Amino acid sequence: MTAWNTSPLRRSARREWGPLFRTVRNALVRDKWRAIPMTIGAVCLTSVFQIVQNTPWGFQPVQDLGSVKAADPLWPALLRTPLSLFVPALDLPVWGALAQILLVFGISEICIGWWRTLLIGYVATLAGTTYARIGLALGHDHPFGLPVSDRIVNDTGPSAAVVGLAIYVCWRYRAYLTGAVVILAMIGEVLVKDNLAGKEHLAAIAAVMAVCVVRAQWHPVRSRAALGQPPP
After folding, report:
1. 3-state secondary structure string, 65-104?
2. How far apart are the first and last CA of the chain?
3. CB of 161 within 8 A of CB of 122?
4. DSSP E strand stretches across 91-231
């Protein structure tokens, strides 16, 4: 037995990622791509939106269907929020959004199921959208406020859902250190680049952490996750 096999680092890595890794590996070995049908659909839908919104005729229809801004009336914004998960940001490379969806949505779909993945993703996205309106009402001088110029900035697209799902899966599978790293990275994003997207990510984290607290109180996490088995 090598020193690496018995090292504290390896034991820590097994505790942190072992259950999560076994769950994902077993599902992919058994079912291959059939393990993540919702994720594949999400990647395809995001790709279609990206192609269409970069055509002369398709930009405005995509904006009307899935673009959410704080300046929009509340009810139309709420109706657009579900599709806004799959409309990639205009100022970022689409391959980044697709990679995030494939990786995080895929892991989440395997670990907590497709409908929980969509539910947590929508909660995170809705939290970011709601925060934008609250931040504008607070004003730029408030620590949690936003400048008036942010009222016409599009929401974060799939990234708030990705961040929220990462936090939830880390909590569900007790990868607490990884979850803490994600949170610190999002705080660092706001400190380095104080923009709407970064603050919406923090709002998404806060909302999902609240879901985790409620979930822990009402339905304590059982040992299935610790054993690397999919949750009931």
Report:
1. HHCCECCCCHHHHHHHHHHHCCCCCCCCCHHHHHHHHHHH
2. 36
3. yes
4. none
| pLDDT tens digits, one per residue of 80-99 | 988 998 998 877 788 988 99
At 139 the three-state DSSP class reads coil
Total-model pTM: 0.90
Q: How far is CA 209 from the centre of its chain?
A: 12
Say which residues have a Cβ less than 8 Å from residue 110's Cβ, sequence separation at least 6. 23, 24, 27, 28, 35, 36, 230
For the segment 119-154, what is each residue's pLDDT rounded down to a tens digit? 999 999 999 999 999 999 998 888 888 999 899 888
Q: Provide the 10 A C-beta neighbour count for residue 143.
A: 5
Sign of CA dihedral 172, 177, 182, 187: positive
**Token pair belonging to 188:** 């660092």
Residue 200 tokens, joined: 């919406």
Tell me if 175 sits within 8 A of 20, measured CB to CB: yes
Q: Are 84 and 68 in contact (CB under 8 A)?
A: yes
